[in-house]
Amino acid sequence: TPDVESELLIKALRINTLSKLTFVDMNKFVVLIKDVFPGISVKDIVTNKSQQQQEGFEEDKRDLSENQINKILQFYEATKQRIGAVLVGPSGCGKTTIWKTLKRAYEKLGQQVKVHLINPKAMPRKQLLGNMNNDTREFS
User: Fold this and answer.
1) Residue 54, pLDDT score
2) Calpha distance 135→88 (Å, rounded)
3) What is the mean pLDDT of residues 115-128?
4) For the chain, percent helix, then strand, then coil, each to nearest 5?
5) What CA–CA distance (Å, rounded) separates 60 from 129?
């Protein structure tokens, strides 16, 4: 049905977009989605976590704000969909808390996590994040 397809599309857009937005831009994005898909309920990311996964995350959850938990879940979705993920933001915004909490949760589940911390000033930006060829629109 069209409503089910719209819900799936909204979920895909939210999963792939929300983690990249600031709080202000996130609110604008939610309003935009409501305008494009009127009458379709827009829900936060819902993960189908087993009891074991919930226990792995529960210990750290009580010390975190709701916004941090949402960002951790968004980062979790990113790690499931991509080979690698990058956390970017100003000092003190919670990048370390996000990846360390998720890493501990994975480790409690017996899953190995590889983390590579890089000083962004240690290499050229194109080498660190990749480059888009404007003529061919090819990313490398």
Assistant:
1) 53
2) 27
3) 83
4) 60, 0, 40
5) 30
